[in-house]
Amino acid sequence: MLILLAVVAVIVVIFSWQLFSPLPPPKVLLKFQGFTVRGTNTVVLICFTNEGTKSVWWGGSFKVTPETQSPGPLQNWSVQFSGWPSSTPPSSGFVMPLTGIPENYRRFWVSAEYRHYKKRPLRIEMEERLIRLTARHRMSPTFWKIAHWCLDRLPDPPKAEVVEISTPLITNDPKSQQLLK
Fold first, then answer.
1. How far is CA 21 from the centre of its chain?
2. Partner of 115 for a Cys bridge, out of 85, 89, 131, 160, CB 3.0 to 4.6 A?
3. DSSP character for 36?
4. Closest Cα partner for 30 from 113, 120, 149?
5. Distance CA 65, CA 30 (A)
6. Mean of pLDDT over the chain
7. For residues 174 and 106, is the Cβ–Cβ distance under 8 A?
8. What local confidence, expressed as pLDDT, does residue 176 receive?
9. What is the pLDDT of residue 123?
10. CA angle 149, 151, 152 (to 5 degrees)
């Protein structure tokens, strides 16, 4: 038990300068990559990219909001798409295929939320590293008990800031070359 406390103390001392120094602001982009067809479904490909120098955590969903055909106010309803919330390390990203967008959505945009921290969330980062490690190696229940005990001794993560980003307006016109069939 003393050894585990010593390990936690060493980790905290090593990373203490990172815990208290502010992190740079995030730089996250949401880009429209194009349309494609899978079976009978038209699929919108949206790329979520972290171009910053720190990890951000995608909120787990995309929202597609239509623009009305006639000039005027936007409609206040949208279609939600969800996935598994996950961290996106610096200089990485993922493409999310969105299917089932109603055909009457001729002009729309896609928005997503992500969260980031002004200071390093050491506990969250360590948990993610353990999850990635155990995805590759089978760990015993004893290991998990010890790891959980150690992680509980780390400081609570700072409050996250939630940011919403959107693509520019996307046109889904069958006459347009954007719709690939």
1. 23
2. 160
3. E
4. 113
5. 14
6. 78
7. no
8. 53
9. 84
10. 65
| Segment 27-50, tens digit of pLDDT | 999 999 888 888 877 788 899 999
Cβ 63 vs Cβ 105: under 8 Å: no
The answer to whether the CB of 95 falls within 8 A of the CB of 47 is yes
Q: DSSP characters for 11-32?
A: HHHHHHHHHHSPPPPP-EEEEE
**Which pLDDT belongs to residue 48?**
92
CB neighbour list of residue 173: distance below 8 Å, 6 or more residues apart: 106, 179
Angstrom distance (rounded) from CA 22 to CA 180: 45
DSSP annotation of 110 reads: E
Q: Which long-range contacts (CB under 8 A, 24 or more apart) does 41-44 make?
A: 41/99, 41/100, 42/99, 42/101, 42/103, 42/172, 42/179, 43/97, 43/98, 43/99, 44/97, 44/98, 44/99, 44/101, 44/110, 44/170, 44/172
At 54, which amino acid appears? Answer: K
The tokens for 128 are 């993610």
**Cβ(166)–Cβ(78) below 8 Å:** no
Beta strands in the chain (DSSP E): 28-38, 41-50, 56-66, 79-82, 87-88, 92-99, 107-116, 161-166, 170-171
Q: Encoding tokens for residue 52?
A: 């910053």
Q: Tokens in use for 146?
A: 């010890």
